Amino acid sequence: MFLDPRGILLFGANALLLYLTMLINSALVGWSIYLLMLGPMLVFPALYLPHKSYFICTLLTGLWVDAALPSGFGLFTFGFLFAGAFIFQMRIRFRAECNYHPIFLAHGVNFFCILLLTLAMGATFINNLGFCLQVFVTSLASHLALLIVAPWFFNFERMLFVLCRLDSEPEDLPIR
Amino acid sequence: MAKLRLDRIKPLVALCAFLIAWWIIPTTVKSFLKASFSEFQAPAWVATSYLNDLENFWARRSHSKVELIEAGREVARAKSLYQFNSQRKETLENEIQRLEAILNLPSRREFRYEVARVVRRDLNAWWQQIVIRKGKDFDIPAGAAVVFSGGVVGRVVEVGAFTSRVELVTSPNFRMAANFEGDERPVVYQGLPQSGFGDPLGAVHDAPQDVVASTQRPLKLLSTRLGGTFPPGLMIGRVSWLEPGNTGIFQAGEVELDARLLSLHEVAVLIPLYPIDLQDDVP
User: Fold this and answer.
1) Under a CB-based contact definition with an 8 Å cutoff, are residues A133 and B197 in contact?
2) Which residues are paired to B117 by β-bridges?
3) More confident residue, A30 or B29
4) Chain B contact for A111, CB < 8 A?
5) Which of A33, A65, A134, B222 is 20 to 30 Å apart from A166, CA to CA?
6) What is the pTM assigned to this prediction?
7) Under 8 Å between Cβ of B118 and B108
8) Are A90 and A51 in contact (CB under 8 A)?
9) Which residues contact A88 (CB under 8 A, 6 or more apart)?
10) Are the C-beta atoms of residues A70 and B168 closer than 8 Å to each other?
11) Which ranges constitute the DSSP H helices of chain A?
């Protein structure tokens, strides 16, 4: 098959996570809290899928995020493929069947996304105290929220695999 | 062995290939991709907005008859006041037109108001934007001014088929010509990165030296017709202090903006009766 069907499921789950995050952000505006939770989107495609499917899923996710957010078009597409390439290369070292390693990766990728966004969109305001303060609050809130959201999201993705009767094992297990 | 090594660098090779392809792809293709993905997502947001309206409708249905009668009375009072104001406005407009005809003044830019619901708010350190539920379907042009009962909201930066993205007045990328109340000399207003704590702030530059602002008597910063996008006299914010700017010739200071900007539900887009030329209109 040209594309692993799990890639389509993972892309759909990523779109859902982005939609829910933006819905929450829209409601939290009065409290000046913003959640950036892009990290979990990248983890399962890089850990579970064969390379071609991983690449297409990550590319589509990146384009989807780029279209939804007012950042420069291509920023997250590039960022996701960049971070994904490193995770994919080292994926044999991670245990995808438990949540510990994926959560750790999700936090890492999320931090990378915040850093990327700050450098791309706010490099000129890096000396501004208000800007730094808000980036710090956003990072803190996002990573705290990720502690709850990431395990839910990974379990949700595994549940989708089971419901659709798809292989729930990663592609490159060392025992294969 | 060689095959194994090639397998290991496959993601990096794909990344490099993507970068080269992205660099080669013409901008029109990228714009098409962005528009396609955006339009694909728009219906979900529009549907969410309609569901919110439905939720509010059902919430209001649970109000008692006494509450509804009281609300009806308040609406009737407000309606009679607005009817009176409308008549007065018409009389004043006729008077202005008569005087303009006598003095041979150039015609002013006329606008029509398109009221739109706010679908989504994206306010953070990196951007300050909202998405409204009207787009090309209501002839919303890019660059149009957006206002609310408290004054200036921002400017339309992107128009989709059914939604539009508005850059808020709080955004550091937002810049417009302004003037202080009772002083026709132009100054420059610009948004600032927001700290997220306290009311939203902006900055004013190029204020003349003789303008004095204090916390006891803050100055009102209003829109001016100089930029062409906004009608004159719309409230931007209040300035409580001014200090010498970088050049020493002009003054600069912080502008306290309306706190309601962070929780907008409905805004009005000012659509010019003749098209906007972005090159000429941006100050």
Assistant:
1) yes
2) B266
3) B29
4) no
5) A65
6) 0.86
7) no
8) no
9) A46, A51, A54, B11
10) no
11) 5-27, 39-48, 51-68, 75-89, 100-121, 129-163
What is the reported pLDDT for B159? Answer: 93
Q: What residues are paired with B207 via a beta bridge? A: B251
| Complex ipTM more than 0.90, yes or no | no
Q: Which of B12, B41, B262 minimises the CB distance to A68?
A: B41
Task: Write down the mean pLDDT value for chain B.
Answer: 86
What is the C-alpha to C-alpha distance for residues A67 and A88, in angstroms, rounded to an integer? 25
Of B3-17, B38-52, B105-119, which has the strongest mean pLDDT?
B38-52
Task: Inform me whether the C-beta atom of residue A41 falls under 8 Å from chain B C-beta atoms.
Answer: no
Whether A82 contacts chain B with CB within 8 A: yes
Would you call A133 and B197 a contact, using CB atoms and an 8 Å cutoff?
Answer: yes
The confidence band for A176, taking pLDDT boundaries of 50, 70 and 90, is: very low
Instruction: Label residue B245 left, alpha or beta by phi (over 0 means left) and psi (-120 to 50 means alpha).
Output: beta
One-letter identity of residue B189: Y
Mutate to test the interface with B, among A80, A131, A137 (most CBs of B within 10 A): A131
Lowest-confidence segment of B7-16, B37-46, B262-271 by average pLDDT: B7-16
The pLDDT score that the predictor gives to residue A114 is 94
Q: Nearest residue on chain A to B120, judged by CA atoms?
A: A26
What is the pLDDT, as a whole number, of residue B283? Answer: 45
The band of A153, judged by pLDDT with boundaries at 50, 70 and 90, is very high
- Contact present, A154 and A104 (Cβ < 8 Å): no
A155: contact with B, CB 8 A cutoff: no
How many alpha carbons fall within 13 Å on the CB side of residue B170?
28
8 Å CB contact of B263 and A29: yes
Confidence grade of residue A1 (pLDDT, cut at 50, 70, 90): low
Asked if A72 is an interface residue toward chain B (Cβ–Cβ < 8 A), one would say no
Q: Which residues of A touch B40 (CB under 8 A)?
A: 67
Contacts of B232 (CB under 8 A, 6+ apart): B222, B223, B224, B225
pLDDT of residue B13: 87
Give chain B positions within 8 Å (CB) of A69: 122, 127
CA distance B56 to B61: 9
Q: Tell me the pLDDT band of A167, cut-offs 50, 70 and 90.
A: confident
